[in-house]
Specification:
3 domains, single chain, alpha/beta, MurD, globular, UDP-N-acetylmuramoyl-L-alanine:D-glutamate ligase, 9-stranded mixed beta sheet, UDP-N-acetylmuramoylalanine--D-glutamate ligase, 6-stranded mixed beta sheet, about 35% helix, cytoplasm, Rossmann fold, ligase
């Protein structure tokens, strides 16, 4: 069996390692440059590879192709594979059959990383032998090759779900759905929504789907479509006989006739959206039969995720917050919504078809100044130019942070929450977040 891997990054190299171990004839092809550390791994494992090109004769003879999530379906080589009827799948689809571990799959436009990390924290604190993979950390395929976990918590993007055929998580979570990555879905929101719901398409009556019952797109899909999984809703406004909800400043989760309660004030993560993340993670913990005391303790000591509403420093009574992970409007909505002080907002980057109108009311209420950090800021200036008193354009993170310090006064917050992808000026959102933190530390 010939396995061709497109993309020599984390998921690609992990898949190649697993494929090699399972006796496949493996070839890795990357149209860009493969990083040195990944090249070393491939060479050490005796895996053939090429970079900065796709040699068709070495690719179109594959039995199966694993495509890295970053490569669009529209790529020429992918189209040729599909035309030839060769299966093009994701890392998760390739690796899942090689492990008996149960998987908890988490997707959503926002909140999925926090929910994934929090769920992992809850299960690990309870002493379970659990792995963490998907969009985070070491690739799922490589961990399966080492096969040392009984269960995995997987953060799954829509791109990873597009490449599944038979994969099913025992427990699936959809945190929320808002327009994102529409450039990859022919600018059709319904295509993106369907993509997220692929997480439940192979689930059976033995499996569970945990979802945000306040989310319009999710509710509409569930009314029109069927899943066989057992539904477990969570909500900030509704209550359920089975599910999780907030009532009188208390989070309640009723699952399999068992009740769990915890005061919201005791939850380490702040903000309404984080109560949703906590309800989703708690629902998993209850399904995995984790003790109530362990759940309470884990929820009260969880430190949060880097680059997601991360408090950096307070300088001259101005709080600097790194929310570089907010790469779409919905994520920035949550960030602005949780601001309680006048805010200097650093925004901008590569726009994925953003509609800034959703932020209008929050910007009017909370934002005193906007600093645009992107190559093309026209849409942001058009949207908010008449709404805030101060609007500045800068080209570097250092400039952005210095300008923010200059504009801000005692009691203000400086918030980096870009609502855009980072690729115009930075390597990725982590690089953008680190540059922000470095610039703040250098003030």
């Amino acid at each position: 069996m010939r396995l061709v891997v497109l993309g020599g990054g984390e998921s690609g190299v992990g898949t190649a390692i697993l494929g090699k171990e399972k006796g496949y004839d493996v070839f890795v092809s990357d149209f860009g440059k493969i990083k040195e550390n990944y090249k070393e791994v491939l060479i050490n494992k005796g895996i053939e590879w090429e970079d900065e090109k796709h040699t068709e004769s070495l690719i179109l003879n594959a039995d199966v192709v694993m495509k890295s999530p970053g490569i669009p379906e529209k790529a020429a080589i992918v189209k040729k594979l599909v035309e030839k009827g060769i299966a093009v799948i994701s890392e998760i689809e390739f690796a899942a059959p090689f492990t008996k571990a149960i998987t908890i799959g988490i997707t959503g436009s926002n909140g999925k990383t926090t929910t994934t990390m929090l769920t992992y924290h809850l299960l690990k604190s309870a002493g379970l032998n659990v792995g963490l993979a998907g969009n985070i950390g070491k690739s799922f395929a490589e961990q399966v090759a080492e096969d040392k976990y009984d269960s995995y918590v997987l953060e799954l993007s829509s791109f990873q779900l597009d490449g599944i055929i038979n994969y099913k998580p025992h427990i699936a979570i959809i945190t929320n759905i808002s327009p994102d990555h529409l450039d990859r879905y022919d600018y059709k929101y319904e295509n993106y929504i369907d993509s997220k719901f692929r997480i439940t398409m192979n689930q059976t009556e033995e499996d569970y789907l945990i979802y945000d019952a306040d989310d319009e797109a999710i509710s509409e899909w569930l009314q029109k479509n069927k899943t066989r999984a057992k539904l477990i809703p969570f909500s900030l406004t509704k209550t359920f006989s089975e599910g999780a909800f907030i009532k009188n400043n208390t989070m309640e989760a009723i699952i399999n006739q068992e009740e769990f309660q915890m005061e919201t004030a005791a939850i380490a993560l702040e903000g309404k959206h984080n109560f949703k993340n906590a309800m989703a993670a708690t629902s998993v913990a209850k399904l995995m039969q984790i003790r109530k005391a362990t759940i309470r303790e884990s929820l009260s000591n969880f430190q949060g995720v880097e680059h997601r509403l991360e408090k950096v420093l307070k300088i001259q009574n101005v709080q600097y917050i790194n929310d570089s992970k907010a790469t779409n409007v919905n994520a920035t909505f949550f960030a602005l919504d949780s601001m309680n002080t006048p805010t200097v907002w650093i925004v901008g980057g590569v726009d994925k078809g953003n509609d800034y109108n959703e932020l209008m009311a929050l910007v009017r209420e909370k934002v005193k100044a906007i600093i645009c950090l992107g190559v093309d800021n026209r849409k942001i200036i058009d949207a908010f130019g008449n709404v805030v008193d101060v609007m500045v354009e800068v080209n570097t993170m250092t400039e952005a942070v210095r300008m923010a310090q200059h504009i801000s006064e005692k009691g203000d917050t400086v918030l980096l929450s870009p609502a855009c992808a980072s690729f115009d000026l930075f390597e990725n959102y982590e690089d953008r977040g680190r540059q922000f933190k470095d610039a703040v530390h250098n003030l």
